Amino acid sequence: MKHPLIIFNPNSDPKRLNEVKKAISWLSVTLQFGIVGSYLDSLGFPQLHHHDGITVYESEEKAILDSDSILSLGGDGTVLYCVHALAGIPKEDRIFDNVPIIPINFGTVGFICPYTLDDLYNDEVYDYDISERYMLLCNGEETALNEIAIIKTDHGIRRFRIKHNQQDVSEFRADGVILSTATGSTAYSFSCGGPILFPGSGNDAISITPISPIDASLKPIIIPLGEGDRLHVRSDNTKSIVDGSPSKTTSEVVVEKHPQKLKLATPRDFNYFNLLKQKLGWSRLSF
Question: How many other β-carbons are positioned within 10 Å of the β-carbon of residue 19?
C-alpha cells in the first residue's frame, strides 16, 4: 500500500466524524494518501489541503484511478459505498481487480470490516491477505456486493416467479425476496432467516430468501450462478434495492454474476468463524 485513497461518510454523526478526524490526523504524519477535498472540508481540516504527502482531489473518480487501494473508515455501509464508487468508474477503466478495499471498522457489527482502529494505529492494516469476493450484476448495470432485494411497493401481497436460466425455480406469494451473495449472507438475508454462506465456500452460490412468505413451508434455497447463468425474478408493483441504494420500480429483475471480483483486505491470521462468534455472540464450546 503506497498511496491509498481514504473514504468515509462525511454525513456521519459528529462523534464518528471526530474519530475519523483523529485517524486522518494520525495518518497524515505516518502515510502518504489521497483524499477528496470535500471530505477534508467536512472535517474542518483546511490545513491538510497543503500538507506534504497528501494529494487532494476534486473528483472521486480521479482519486480512485490514481490510488492503489482504498482505506474505508466506517462500517459495512462505507465499504458498500466504496464498491458503488468503484462501479461508477467507466467500464474501460473499471479496476475492481486492482484496487483492494481495506475496511477499518468504526461501527458496531461490521461483518465486512475485520480491522479495528487499534489495527490501524498499530500498522497491522499494511500487511494483509486478499479475500476475493464475487458480486452480482442487476439488470446489467447495478453492482451488488451484498444483495439485491425485490420488495412490494404497497401493502398488498405479491406473487413472485423465479427462473434460473430456462428452469422454473419457484413461484410463491410474499412481501419480497432477497438474492444474496456469500458476503451479504450475514446482512439483510440473515435477518430474514437466510443461511450464512462462508466466503469462498461457493464462489458462484447465491441464496434466495423469501420475505414473509404466505407458505410457511417455503425455505431459502442456495443455487449456483456461474458464468453465463441468469436468474429472472418477476413480480408486479415491486421495487429493487441494490445494497441499500435508492430503489427502482420494476416488474422484472435479471441477475447475473459480475465479471469482476472485489478484493477485500483481511488480516493474515483472519478466522471467519471467530468473526461470527464475536459479532453474533455465539459462545465458544468448552469440554
Answer: 16
Name the residue among 189, 223, 191 with its Cα closest to residue 209: 189
CATH number at 4-126: 3.40.50.10330
Pairing of strands 33-36, 54-57: parallel
- Domain residue extents for the chain: 4-126, 138-259
Total residues found in the chain within this entry: 287
Q: Is 215 a catalytic residue?
A: no
* Residue tagged active-site, from 76, 93, 204, 229: 76
Map residue 256 onto helix, strand or coil. Answer: strand
User: Which residues, in sequence order, are bridge partners of residue 55?
Assistant: 34
Residue 194: count of CB within 10 angstroms of its CB:
25
**In this structure, are strands 231-242 and 158-164 parallel, antiparallel, or unpaired?**
antiparallel
Q: Which fold has domain 138-259?
A: Tumour Suppressor Smad4 (2.60.200)
Q: Phi, psi at residue 227, to the nearest 5°?
A: -60, 130
Residue showing cell 443455487: 223
Burial class (CB in 10 A: 0-12, 13-18, 19+), 77: middle
Q: Is 200 helix (H, G, I), strand (E, B) or coil?
A: coil
**3-state secondary structure at position 103:** strand
Per the structure block, which three cell numbers stand in for 253?
Answer: 429483475
The model's pLDDT over 120-140, given as tens digits with 9 standing for 90+, comes to 998 888 889 999 999 999 999
Q: Which residues are registered as beta bridge partners of 6?
A: 71
Residue keyed to cell 483546511: 46
Q: What digits encode the pLDDT tens for the residues 58-106? A: 999 999 999 999 999 999 999 999 999 999 988 777 778 789 999 999 8
